[in-house]
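User: I'm putting together a small comparison set for a docking exercise, and I want a reference complex before I start. The sequence is below, and the ligand is manganese (II) ion. Could you produce the 3D structure with the ligand included, as C-alpha cells?
Assistant: Of course. I'll restate your input first, then give the C-alpha cells for the complex.
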Amino acid sequence: MLMSFRWYGSKLDKIPLSYIRQIPGMKNVVSAIYHIPVGEVWPYEDILAIKSQIEAAGLTFKTVESVNVHEDIKLGLPSRDRYIENYCITLKNLAKAGVEVVCYNFMPVFDWTRTELAKELPDGSTALFYNEKVIKGLEPAKLVADMEKGANGFELPGWEKDRLATIKKSFELYQDVDEEKLFANLKYFLAGVIPTAEECGIKMAIHPDDPPWSVFGLPRIVTSKVNLERIVKLVDSPANGLALCSGSLGANPANNMPEIFGHFARTGRLHFAHVRNIKIYEPGVFSEVAHKADDSSLDMYAIMKALYDADFTGPLRPDHGRMIWGEEGMPGYGLYDRALGAVYLNGLWDAIDRCAKAPGI
Ligand SMILES: [Mn+2]
C-alpha cells in the first residue's frame, strides 16, 4: 500500500507540505483542484502546478480526491452529456500529469453528513459525530447552516457554497429520482467515462455514501457489499473500482469491513482505501475515534491484514481525525490525529509484514 495524506492545496489548507513530509512513512498526497467549478475541465497547467508543489516537498501526487460529479449527471438531466465530456478531458489531463487514481462520490445533494463537528470525547478531544435522531428533526437548510458554523472558517470538502446555493431546488429535482433511477444515472456516467479512464490508465474509485443510508429521504446507493458488487458490474472494467472507507461503510454494523476490503482488493476493484475507526453508540449514532481506540467498533488490524493478504498496492490514507492538542483546523482534517492514524496503520502493516516474512521472530 501507498501511505497517503489528504491535502487541500496551499490556499485552503493551513498544513504545510513540509509537515506532511515529516510523518514517518508518508509517501503520497491526495489532493484536487479547488478553484474550478464542479463540472468544468481541470486545466493541465493547474494540475501540473499542484503536482510540482507536492513533488518539491518530496512526496508524490498519484491520487485525486475528488473530481466531483455534477448534480445534473446524478439527476440524469440532458445537460449531463456536456459534463461527462468535460469529466473525460479532466481524466486525460490528470493521466498526463501522472495521476493514477481518481476518487469521486455519487451522493445526491449532500456529501458526508454529520450533526456535530466537534463532539467532545471522554479524553477531551473532539470529533465528528452523527445522530440520526437529530437529522430526523432538522430542515436540510439548518444542517447546511450548522455545518458552515462549525467549520472553523474553512470551506468543508463536499460542502462548497456553489454546490449548496440551490439546495431547495435540488430537493425538488430529486423528487423523481429513486434508488433504481440513481443506479441508472450512475451507469450512464460510468459508460461515458470508463472507456476514457481505461484508455489513459486512470482507475476510477467511487467512495461509499457517508453515512451509508438515506439522509433526508434522498436516495443513496453506495451503501453495502451487494450494491458495491452491482456498481463494479455496471460497467465491467478494471478501471471501474472502489474507494472503500471503513468509517463510512462501517457505520452500518451489517457491513463487515475486513471482509469487504479483502474481497474487493482480491478481485482487483479496490483502488483506494480510507481506514479510520468509529464508535457506534446505538444504531444511527456514531462518532469518529482514534485509530487505536480500545473502545471502538471497527477492527483496524483485521482491515489492514485483509489488505495485506490481498497484496493491496494502492493508495491508503487515514481518514478524518479528531482535534487534539489544541489544534484549530478544518474539522476532521487536522494534522496531529491524522498523522497519528497514519503511523498507527504503518505500524500494523509493518508488524503484519514482519510476521508474514519471518514468523516466530
Ligand atoms: Mn472516506
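The chain is about 40% helix and 15% strand. The longest helix spans residues 179-200.
User: Thanks, that's exactly what I needed.
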